[in-house]
What does this fold into?
Amino acid sequence: MSNYLLLGDEAIAQGALDAGLSGIYAYPGTPSTEIMEYVQRAKEASGRAVKSMWSANEKTAMESALGMSYAGKRAMVCMKHVGLNVAADAFMNIAITGVNGGLLIVVADDPSMHSSQNEQDSRYYGQFAMIPVLEPSHQQEAYDMVFYGFEVSERLGLPVMMRITTRMAHSRTVIHRKPELAQNELKLPPNARNYVLLPANARVRYRHLLDQQKELNRCAAQDGYNRFLPGTDTSLGIIACGLAYNYLMEHFPSGSCPWPVLRICQYPVPVPMVEQLTSVCSRILVLEEGYPLLEQQLRGLLPHPSREILGRLSGAVPRDGELNPRIVGHALGLPSQTGQAVPPIVANRPPAFCNGCGHSDMFKVINEVMEPYGPNHVFGDIGCYTLGFLPPYNTLSSCVDMGSAVTMAKGAADAGMSPSLGVIGDSTFTHSGMTGLLDLIIDHTPATIIIADNATTGMTGGQESSAFGRLESICLGLGIHPDHLIVLLPLRKHHEENVAALKAEVEYAGPSVVIFRRECVQTAARRARSKNQE
Amino acid sequence: MKTDIILAGVGGQGILSIATVIGLAAMKKGLNIKQAEVHGMSQRGGAVQSNLRISSKPISSDLIPEGQADVILSVEPMEALRYLPFLRPEGWVVTNIRPFRNIPDYPDMEALIPQVEALPRVVTLDADQMASDSGNARSSNMVMLGAATPFLNLSPQEMEEAITEIFQRKGPGVVQTNLCAYRSGLEIARKRQEASR
Ligand SMILES: Cc1ncc(C[n+]2csc(CCOP(=O)(O)OP(=O)(O)O)c2C)c(N)n1
It folds into this structure.
């Protein structure tokens, strides 16, 4: 079959299309976004009527995927690592209900926090839920694993997680496709009661999940993704998980590593394979992208008298941040090489608002209104507008998790901070801000919620926003007083009137919503380009 | 054969359009490719780079190890210097000298350009000027690709085929201006390379 030069994310999307996918649900988040974007562009997706949707948030996406699986079809749900926190309630319980059609949950971690608030390791969630976790080491493997993931999900009746990281997601390579599989027929689950997690059912289902663990271990040992590679020098044994295996092998261009290696790309980790390594090596180096999950398991609580475990906890590998060839070489004691140092003349170039961005006009208005009150009264949230934290604006005092600007403004107002403001993007608002606004309205909290509405999900590349065209009706429906819902146009020429309007709402002793609405310049330009092409 | 290339620039400058051409040329030649890109936050006007690895043997790491890049291809002069730790001692820097100023503390050009030109193996050019001269101000990335070609282990003919294939969709006029831009860059690099022999 034909070859394609695909990103890891795109390889996963193509794999899913080829493996008989019927529906994909996601909320954007770097580095997972391109999976859905690929499906939405793919001709075979529309040709085969594959359902694809940017959901309101990761939880609604996960539940929609479960519903599709319930009806017997293959479904995929994609998110970034912190998105799994939002979807965690559904996630943990789907392990208990089990699935009908294959359900693949793709979670993209971001070690080194290139575009994220933290570098949490989703493998812990997989372990927590006691479901199979796949961690591909290269893009072709990711493609192949999608087929395997669906197949094993249906065979075990369990959701399967695929954990990827930034470099896997955003690195491109040639992908060889397999023949396409047909989609599943609509077929309701034979045991629909499994999905009713009343205590009596839930206990039965949980015991079933516990009983299945032996089978999960057997799959991980026998299905070929975990491999023991013998070596001649047994002074060291290496466990390399996912991408770490590549950074290891980069040091051995001939393709053979002198030390025995256990390559782990599927969890739970099969104990007999680890024993195979520890029976020949008493010093073990664990290389894993993310937290020291396996290293901690190997160490246990008490030191083993005759075994030395090296890794992120021992200091052989830095405790935080993503791996790279240099770090792995250093852990192996290999000589390192580096070019010339970065000359001091090179200045930092942090991300910034695009030229002409409406967010910057909005922050100028907020700053003028807030000037008399001093700093630190304005909570922020997650999106392009978070850059309002940086100079020259210095407006925002927080960026925690999606929706938190609204509810932190509430809590601080409850504590007596006045005025109290929250700034939230349109997509972030429909993701997790609406429910918080309901709290403010019910409690008549004196806080002003500013919605930075650029009519798109800007930070992640301009996906459609669930808020588009609906913000006023949502806020009114939640019960905001119509006199305290105002819409402003953030343009320099309206600065004075915008300041006056915002000032009035900030001074109002109840909940108010101020929408600053102007289309993202990038989205507008893209729209103009595609119109021109028509 | 192995070529490790670091593509450098600022979010929004479109360095990936260069990677696309190299990637296609390498794929048609049956070579192995890995191309790590930056997506996400830095695309908002921050420093961005792409690690492009081409080899006749399988490639392990998606990231180029420090001190091993054969070429730094930068569409902006200050960004060319940011990745020097990744360049191998005998590696080349090919860079546009047109600055992209979106930060208040961008260095003085009188200080910056001499530092760039003092690098042991460097090709500098004003790709923006050359692109407008060749009829399309937006094809400066193809000028840069031309200037880097002698260091990439792919022939000009293979590159031109890839350019043609990629721009075909937009019509023969667009293909021609891009090829024209490409050739003007190639010319500069050849002269520079001969001068250094
Ligand atoms: C739970 C969670 N999901 C996804 C993300 C990724 N993410 C960060 S910013 C952003 C877009 C926000 O869009 P919007 O609120 O409209 O603001 P804009 O960037 O357009 O200004 C997304 C999806 C995240 N950080 N956390």
